[in-house]
């Protein structure tokens, strides 16, 4: 079932449950999907990979805002961002834990033949393609740096 159909059903359920936070997040997802579909050169259809990228972007926006609000002691706004982030993450693929990520990156380093920090670009290119949607870009980058520095 497509993400859009899932979102529409979830919006109905959230309305019936009177779950304001969930409704807010679901409407944000639906709006982002509509914008992406109708964007210039969008073609009107989104692939599963496009949908995942879109959800990752929304999650990243919430995380960044959450961090800023916490720094500024705006807990009222931080709570809203956190609530929305939880809902958005339900629709993202399961994220890899550090052990799984370390193993996957070690394998990528071995297959690309990288041996020094100078090869980081080569490894990052392969890692971001292979691990798209499964791990955060910052986490991938940090682990690649660490493993290449050894």
From TrEMBL:
Organism placement in taxonomy: Bacteria, Pseudomonadati, Bacteroidota, Chitinophagia, Chitinophagales
A Pfam family per the record: YqeY
Protein name stated in the entry: GatB/YqeY domain-containing protein
Alphabetical list of InterPro entries matching this protein: Asn/Gln_tRNA_amidoTrase-B-like (IPR003789), GatB_Yqey_C_2 (IPR023168), YqeY/Aim41 (IPR019004), YqeY/Aim41_N (IPR042184)
Organism, as annotated: Chitinophaga rhizophila
Listed transmembrane segments: none
